Amino acid sequence: NSRGASALLKDSIPIAEFSASGLFEGHDLLRRGFTSVKNELLPSHPLELSEKNFQLNQDKTNFDTLRNIQGLHAPLKLQMEFRAVKQVQRLPFLHSSNIALDTLRGNDECISFEDILNDPSQSEVMGEPHMMMEYKLGLL
User: Phi/psi of residue 44, each to 5°?
Assistant: First the structure.
């Protein structure tokens, strides 16, 4: 009955692993950049996850407070506005300031770390415009 077991194993292996874009494909440096071991490690400090999710936690707290004060419609309307503003951005090779999102959150009059030390001219993400646009449109 070993032949039946091998037939079951053969049928359970996905075909995508054997294609050119599957398991045996090389790492695409143009699209994904260099691999980094740091990205695959667990957080080194207990507060690191809390700091990464700070804005998400703050939004959740604000939505809960708004729901308790004004009712269910207020946080739903604000979430729809957030979603609409996040979709509108510049071309992929240009830095987007997200000023509308900052205005909705009330951060438009605050000077933060990102305003001073997040200079787009020193960004490492700048790439070849035609390649990035074709990738975003799904042509590559």
Answer: -85, -15
